[in-house]
Amino acid sequence: MSPAFAKAVAGELVRLNGSLDRLLVALAGDPEVLRRHMTDLQAIDDMSQVQCALADLLLSDEPMGAGIDAVPLEAMAARLRDGIQATHGEI
Question: How does DSSP assign 20-67, residue by residue?
């Protein structure tokens, strides 16, 4: 993947993350929605965090392994490591 393409994809992830954040704020501002859908709102927040982590990975100049080590979501980092190892062997 070229750096320009990675930067463009990261930009789209950041843009989408902004939309998710605005949706989350709007929904969480309604106490009834918050009460009835707390688990769903948390899932939206989790998606937002994954998108930010993916954008950071795409923009990182770090080697692949170091970039994955910097992912703040341990489950996501483990999935990335497993997927890379299954395809390419060791990171």
Answer: HHHHHHHHHTSHHHHHH-HHHHHHHHHHHHHHHHHHHHHH--S-HHHH
Distance, CA of 81 to CA of 43 (rounded, Å): 22
pTM above 0.90, yes or no: no
How far lies 33's CA from each of 28, 36, 67, in Å? Answer: 7, 5, 37
Maximal CA-CA distance, the chain: 49
Q: Which two tokens stand for residue 85?
A: 């190892």
Q: Which residue has the tokens 């320009």?
A: 4
The residue type of 84 is: I
Burial class (CB within 10 angstroms; exposed 0-12, middle 13-18, buried 19+) of 41? middle
Give the pLDDT band (50/70/90) at residue 8.
Answer: very high
Task: Return phi, psi of residue 54, to 5°.
Answer: -65, -45
